[in-house]
């Protein structure tokens, strides 16, 4: 007698046979014992499977008992931004240091990029080299640590924390022996005559330093006034900053308005809406300035590197003044010891009495608005579009898993933007430091190549996200290509729009780069998790 | 398809009302839905995915997706069916992205024994296996086989729904399930052998 095969019996048990076949089988079962016993064994097996699978053998983790909160504190954002700002600080320190050393060595007028590249060669002295070796060992240790933690690094938080820690270490060149931390008060004043023999970290509303700090000062708050003395560096984030006293080290200020009326012995880096270097103010080395409105009446012993919308020069610049700005005026009292180079939309006004060591070099800023009326513009844009689309296509077809993962990560724009900003700043710094060792050079080059690649592919993933957003999601490759084409086109349009072009390009870069980095990290951790969790089975059935 | 279990504590009209409120944006209703189904979805993920951490992550991600997609849910169809479909798609997508070894669709039929298995032997393996052993064996199956069994015996999906979730042809689902059972039996038999040997 012919028997029914196992698959048909299973389909029958699962209620997946049509009525006709089910009827035939039932008829057959009445007279066939082997088929009946098979069916009964299969049924028992199904029961066992059902019981085993549905049995509540494990408790549900406590954090899953309440619904996920979409409005959770965006730690990824905070940490990403925090790390990025720390990274920025260290980048400025490096640039400033190298700038000064190059100035001393007689190199002048080189680009910031060249400064970074030559950083290793001009590292000053043994003590700094030792510090660098310390960083290197920490960075080298951090990598295996990250590798060990890879399975835990499924969420953004630990990644951001590790990277933030790393950037934090990089950003603190000289380890503080002792630190005084003052926080949580509405006002903080270091009284006149008082001396702190340690670093001071202060976070408060109105901060005043009237006494002496024998160390560095890190200040975060509403306003800071220094009438006393700081023997180390001053790093400040505040709405108003006023330095009337003396800073023996460097000043890095991020402020709405910053005034220097006192003495800064070394260099100053100022980011401010308005900056005023009064006629009594002096900066012992160079001044790097990014300001909306600046008035420079005091003395800058070395170079001035400034980017400002509106600037007046009344004072003394010891060496070169390199300025980019819209309205620059050089008054009769101004004195510039080196070259004066101005890039801008309009010729700077130079009053008759101004003493310039060499004639003013003015370079009109090229017209920022793209030539929309010219065919060449559209041709160039089409070429850019075509190139990006082609690369996107290659990625989509050759690395579909990674493409999908990156697309998935770009949907989480908060973390992607935070991590993007972090990678944008931290990667070159880490690469530069890695360059200082022979072993690190290939690593740094590979890292930088990946960095450039990630920067270029950023538009592809943001474009693809946009396409998916407009046309809806799909897992179909042809559909994905269509979405990529549409999204990339829109990205190209947005990044060429007047006024918002630079901002849009920046957002696309950090967003895409963040998604790329997250996808890379996740694919690493997932790959390993999957390998360890699923041992290979002997193939097929007996 | 049959209406799935985990609706205890809430009648169908109550559930319909809660879903409607959640769709309208009520966070209270959403919380209620989560409390009702969160544990079931976690257990589903725990069976479908390799590690507990994966299941925890996936549960959160699934509910975020459910919240986003709730407006797409057709209230005339069973909610649990829809919920498990979202969960299954998410887990399967996750496993696929990790490129876990996948069974090839072609050639499977040749590997399946067409003759009757011995019901006596099967009964013996079953009688010697506990739920715990079945779960341990399940963990060792290739992801697609495990996923197919979970969709069938946890979510109680029909062959059509399984085909849709796993992206395979409908006739292949039977092959997949049968093959998964064979692999499970083999693993169980091996485990039994091991424990016998260990007991000697």
Q: State the CATH topology of the largest domain in chain B.
A: Arc Repressor Mutant, subunit A
Q: State Rg of chain A.
A: 32 Å
Oligomer: heterodimer
CATH superfamily of the largest domain in chain B: Winged helix-like DNA-binding domain superfamily/Winged helix DNA-binding domain
Q: What structural class do helix, strand and pairing data of chain A support?
A: alpha/beta
Number of helices of chain A: 13
Fraction in beta strands of chain B: under 5%
Largest sheet of chain B: none
Shape of chain A: elongated
Question: Could you please describe the fold and organization of this structure?
Answer:
- The complex is a heterodimer of chains A (542) and B (200).
- By secondary structure, chain A is of the alpha/beta class.
- Chain A is 49% helix and 23% strand.
- Chain A has 13 helices and 22 strands.
- Chain A has helices at residues 6-13, 19-31, 33-54, 75-105, 112-117, 125-148, 156-171, 375-398, 400-411, 413-435, 440-471, 477-496, 501-533, and strands spanning 179-190, 195-196, 199-209, 212-213, 217-226, 229-230, 234-243, 246-247, 251-260, 263-264, 268-277, 282-283, 287-296, 299-300, 304-313, 316-317, 321-330, 335-336, 340-344, 349-350, 355-356, 361-364.
- In chain A, the strands form two sheets. In chain A, strands 1, 3, 5, 7, 9, 11, 13, 15, 17, 19, 20 and 22 form a twelve-stranded parallel β-sheet that branches.
- Chain B folds into two domains: 12-97, RNA polymerase sigma factor, region 2, helix turn helix motif (Rna Polymerase Sigma Factor, Chain: A), CATH 1.10.1740; 108-199, Arc Repressor Mutant, subunit A (Orthogonal Bundle), CATH 1.10.10.10.
- Helix content of chain B is 71%, strand content 0%.
- Chain B has helices at residues 12-23, 27-48, 52-69, 79-97, 108-111, 119-127, 131-139, 143-153, 159-166, 170-199.
- At the A-B interface, helix 1, helix 3, helix 9 and helix 13 of A face helix 2, helix 3, helix 6, helix 7 and helix 8 of B.
């Amino acid at each position: 007698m012919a028997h029914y095969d196992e698959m048909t019996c299973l389909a029958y048990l699962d209620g997946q046979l049509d009525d006709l076949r089910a009827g035939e089988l039932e008829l057959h079962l009445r007279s066939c014992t082997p088929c009946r016993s098979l069916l009964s064994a299969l049924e028992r097996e199904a029961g066992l499977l059902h019981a085993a699978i549905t049995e509540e053998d494990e408790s549900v983790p406590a954090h899953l008992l309440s619904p996920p909160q979409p409005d959770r504190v965006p730690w990824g954002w905070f940490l990403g931004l925090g790390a990025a700002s720390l990274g920025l600080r260290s980048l400025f320190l490096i640039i400033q240091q190298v700038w000064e050393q190059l100035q001393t060595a007689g190199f002048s007028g080189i680009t910031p990029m060249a400064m970074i590249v030559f950083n290793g060669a001009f590292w000053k002295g043994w003590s700094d080299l030792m510090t660098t070796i310390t960083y290197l060992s920490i960075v080298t240790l951090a990598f295996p640590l990250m590798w060990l933690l890879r399975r835990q690094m499924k969420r953004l938080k630990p990644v951001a924390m590790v990277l933030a820690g790393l950037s934090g270490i990089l950003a603190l060149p000289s380890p503080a022996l002792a630190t005084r931390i003052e926080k949580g008060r509405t006002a903080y004043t270091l009284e006149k005559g008082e001396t702190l023999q340690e670093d001071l970290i202060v976070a408060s509303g109105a901060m005043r330093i009237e006494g002496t700090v024998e160390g560095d000062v890190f200040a975060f708050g509403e306003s800071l006034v220094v009438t006393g003395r700081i023997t180390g560096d001053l790093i400040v984030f505040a709405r108003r900053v006023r330095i009337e006293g003396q800073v023996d080290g460097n000043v890095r200020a991020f402020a709405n308005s910053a005034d220097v009326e006192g003495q800064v012995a070394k260099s100053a880096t100022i980011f401010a809406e308005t900056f005023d270097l009064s006629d009594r103010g002096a900066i012992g080395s160079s001044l790097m300035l990014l300001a909306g409105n600046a008035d420079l009446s005091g003395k800058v012993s070395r170079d001035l590197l400034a980017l400002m919308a509106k600037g007046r020069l009344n004072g003394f610049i010891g060496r070169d003044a390199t300025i980019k700005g819209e309205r620059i005026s050089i008054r009769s009292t101004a004195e510039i010891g080196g070259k004066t180079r101005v890039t801008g939309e309009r010729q700077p006004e130079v009053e008759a009495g101004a003493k310039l060591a060499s004639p003013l070099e003015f370079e009109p800023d090229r017209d920022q608005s793209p030539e929309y009326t010219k065919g060449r513009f559209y041709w160039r844009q089409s070429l850019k579009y075509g190139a990006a689309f082609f690369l996107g296509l290659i990625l989509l077809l050759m690395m579909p898993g990674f493409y999908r993962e990156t697309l998935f990560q770009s949907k989480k724009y908060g973390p992607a933007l935070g991590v993007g900003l972090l990678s944008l700043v931290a990667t070159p710094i880490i690469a530069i430091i890695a360059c200082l060792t022979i072993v690190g050079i290939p690593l740094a080059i590979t890292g930088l190549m990946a960095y450039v690649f990630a920067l270029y592919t950023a538009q592809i993933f943001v474009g693809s996200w946009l396409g998916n957003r407009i046309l809806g999601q799909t897992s179909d490759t042809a559909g994905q290509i269509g979405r990529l084409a549409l999204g990339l086109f829109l990205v190209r349009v947005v990044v060429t729009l007047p006024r918002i072009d630079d901002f849009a390009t920046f957002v696309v870069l950090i967003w895409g780069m963040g998604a790329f980095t997250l996808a890379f990290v996740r694919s690493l951790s997932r790959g390993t998790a999957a390998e360890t969790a699923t041992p290979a089975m002997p193939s097929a059935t007996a | 398809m049959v209406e799935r279990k985990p609706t205890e504590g809430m009648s169908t009209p109550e559930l319909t009302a809660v879903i409607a409120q959640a769709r309208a944006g009520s966070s209270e209703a959403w919380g209620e839905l989560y409390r009702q189904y969160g544990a079931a979805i976690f257990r589903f993920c725990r069976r479908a995915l390799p590690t507990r951490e994966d299941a925890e992550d996936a549960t959160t991600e699934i509910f975020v997706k459910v919240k986003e997609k709730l407006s797409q849910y057709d209230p005339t169809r069973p909610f649990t069916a829809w919920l498990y479909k979202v969960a299954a798609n998410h887990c399967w997508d996750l496993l696929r992205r990790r490129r876990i070894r996948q069974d090839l669709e072609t050639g499977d039929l040749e590997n399946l024994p067409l003759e009757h298995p011995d019901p006596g032997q099967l009964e013996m393996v079953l009688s010697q296996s506990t739920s715990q052993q079945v779960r341990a064996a399940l963990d060792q199956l290739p992801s697609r086989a495990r996923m197919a069994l979970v969709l069938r015996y946890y979510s109680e999906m029909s062959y059509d729904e399984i085909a849709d979730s796993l992206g395979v042809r409908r006739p292949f689902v039977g092959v997949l399930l049968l093959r998964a059972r064979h692999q499970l039996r083999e693993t169980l038999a091996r485990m039994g052998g091991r424990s016998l040997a260990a007991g000697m």
